[in-house]
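Backbone-to-sequence.
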């Protein structure tokens, strides 16, 4: 009955793998309208035992699709998107730097630009790059401000003079697939991704900054519907496999008895 046990084990592992895929699909559909959300998927891989014997089942490895979404005009000056490669840098709750393409920023009472999770946008003080990243803060007394495609934030003071108050850099990593997801829209670099490198927007392959735009999620509902149907059929097929193997096992036991 060893082969029948193996059949059941294979089917059970496949049920678990497809359950993981179903959860990813549900998560994607729920976040189809979430700004900057990156699609979650799974990669199926055959499991092999320590004895290197085939037929030990299948496992689902989570993965994230980092393809950019589409910039959509929002009409809000502090809404930002990146046209091209790269990420905004925001400050995590523990003071760490996180990367995101979700640029739904708003000014708080102190003029800090914060995303929907309360994380402050980070940039360099003044015109250009260099020095430590710090929270971008628009002087509440400023008459007006603008954000250029090069990431420079120009502020007009009460006296009518204009100056570059901050520069928003564009961050990137060598191993994008090695980023660690904090949630669906923010990521942390790690050993697999490498350190974060910062460039001025539009330089060295970095994308440009679009003020008044938000990046849509990269979820394709048609693809998610197809994946859901495939998962459902595979799940049903594996349940049928378990039932058949169980019936065959019971038949053998009846013969022995």
């Amino acid at each position: 009955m060893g082969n029948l046990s193996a059949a059941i084990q294979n089917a059970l592992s496949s049920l678990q793998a497809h359950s993981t895929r179903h959860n990813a699909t549900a998560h994607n559909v729920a976040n189809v309208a979430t700004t900057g959300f990156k699609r979650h998927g799974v990669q199926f891989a055959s499991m092999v035992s320590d004895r290197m014997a085939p037929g030990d089942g299948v496992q689902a490895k989570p993965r994230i699709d980092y393809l950019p979404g589409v910039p959509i005009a929002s009409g809000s000056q502090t809404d930002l998107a990146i046209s091209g490669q790269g990420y905004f840098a925001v400050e995590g709750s523990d003071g760490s730097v996180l990367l995101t393409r979700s640029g739904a920023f708003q000014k708080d009472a102190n003029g800090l630009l914060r995303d929907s999770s309360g994380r402050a946008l980070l940039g360099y003080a003044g015109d250009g790059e260099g020095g430590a990243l710090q929270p971008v803060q628009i002087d509440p007394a400023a008459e007006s401000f603008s954000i250029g495609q090069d990431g420079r934030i120009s502020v007009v003071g009460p006296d009518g003079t204009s100056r570059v108050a901050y520069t928003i850099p564009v961050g990137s990593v060598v191993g994008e697939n090695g980023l660690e997801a904090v949630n669906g829209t923010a990521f942390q670099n790690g050993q697999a991704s490498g350190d974060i490198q910062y460039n001025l927007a539009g330089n060295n392959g970095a994308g440009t900054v679009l003020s008044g735009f938000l990046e849509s999620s990269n979820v394709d509902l048609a693809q998610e519907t197809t994946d859901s149907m495939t998962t459902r059929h595979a799940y049903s097929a594996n349940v049928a496999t378990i039932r058949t193997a169980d019936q065959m096992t019971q038949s053998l036991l009846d013969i022995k008895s």
